[in-house]
Amino acid sequence: MATLEQIDKSRVPQHVAIIMDGNGRWAMKQKHERLFGHNNAIEAVRAAVESAVQLKVGYLTLYTFSTENWNRPKEEVDGLMELLIKAVHNETKTLMDNNVRLQAIGDMQRIPERSRKVLQDCIDKTAANTGTTLVLALSYSSRWEIAEALKHVCKEGLKPEDIDEETLRRYLSTKDYPDPDLLIRTGGELRVSNFLLWQMAYTEFYFSEQLWPDFRHEDFYEAVADYQQRQRRFGKTEAQVEAAE
Fold first, then answer.
1. Over the range 3-25, which residues count as b (16 or more CB within 10 Å of their CB) and which as e?
2. Can 69 be counted among the known catalytic residues?
3. Which site in 15, 77, 150, 229 is 20 to 30 Å from 242, CA atoms measured?
4. Going by C-beta distance under 8 Å and a sequence separation of 6 or more, which residues neighbour residue 61?
5. Choosing from 40, 69, 129, 194, which is the catalytic residue?
6. Strand duo 182-185 + 101-105: pairing
7. Are 96 and 128 in contact (CB under 8 A)?
8. Rounded Cα–Cα distance for residues 192 and 30 (Å)
9. Catalytic site residue 194?
10. Alpha-carbon distance 105 to 64, whole Å?
11. pLDDT tens readout for residues 142-193
């Protein structure tokens, strides 16, 4: 397992995205309901944020709640919304102390008003912070995001010949952020689950067997250390990349 001292601070990914998977399975292993796993995932979130701050990662995006998650049992959805209120309220001071700016992407109109208000209060309080930007993907899916972007393009009345990749990018939820350099998915699953599909065209993937509630600083460092062993070519040859270094 990698340590903080083993990370090359000059080659840290600018944007790390995480699919936080395994809460339900972790809870079942403890012989509890799924919500028990979600409630015990806060320490893992704190570890990921603290690790990103320590490494000076510019952006950390957490897949917190997908549009598909609305199809889960009402009791679990309601519990997750209450957990969101509790977690954001309790962690606001920590975010301030660590100079972290909170933002959110997704279909916020589907989030209950009380949850939305607590979230917006924290976003407003941390808006002037200049360290790591923590982005919560809430009521989010990539297909929803792309469909919404296309709606805006149509409303603008743009001609087909005026539309290119940069045009569409300007209408994405992530227009103000760089694309992820590294995706971490916990829980042993090997898929991206409708998350940042457009943005992850050249993202490096790291899959961990660790269930999310057990994720700690060392797991984050290990993912970054693995990322630093890779050569990112973006369609170029290895020789071209080495010549540019």
1. eeeebeeeebbebbbbbbbbbbb
2. yes
3. 15
4. 15, 16, 17, 18, 105, 135, 136, 137, 174, 177, 180, 196
5. 69
6. unpaired
7. no
8. 26
9. no
10. 10
11. 999 999 999 999 999 988 899 999 999 999 999 999 999 999 999 999 999 9
Q: What is the pLDDT of residues 6-31, one digit of tens each?
A: 999 999 999 999 999 999 999 999 89
Catalytic residue among 21, 39, 98, 181: 21
Phi-psi region of 36 (alpha: psi -120 to 50; beta: other; left: phi over 0): alpha
Distance CA 44, CA 87 (A): 12
The pTM of the full predicted model, rounded to 2 decimals, is 0.94
What strand order describes the sheet that includes 101-105?
A: 101-105, 133-140, 59-66, 15-19, 182-185, 204-207
What the chain holds in terms of domains, given with CATH numbers, is: 4-141+179-244 (3.40.1180.10)
Alpha-carbon distance of 184 to 2, in angstroms, equals: 15
Q: Under 8 Å CB-to-CB from 206, ≥6 apart: which residues? A: 182, 183, 184, 185, 223, 226, 227
Residues 24 and 29: their CA atoms lie apart, in Å, by 9
8 Å CB contact between 178 and 169:
no
Could you tell me how far CA 121 lies from the centroid of its own chain?
20
Alpha-carbon span 80 to 85, nearest angstrom:
9
Name the pLDDT band for 138 (thresholds 50, 70, 90).
very high
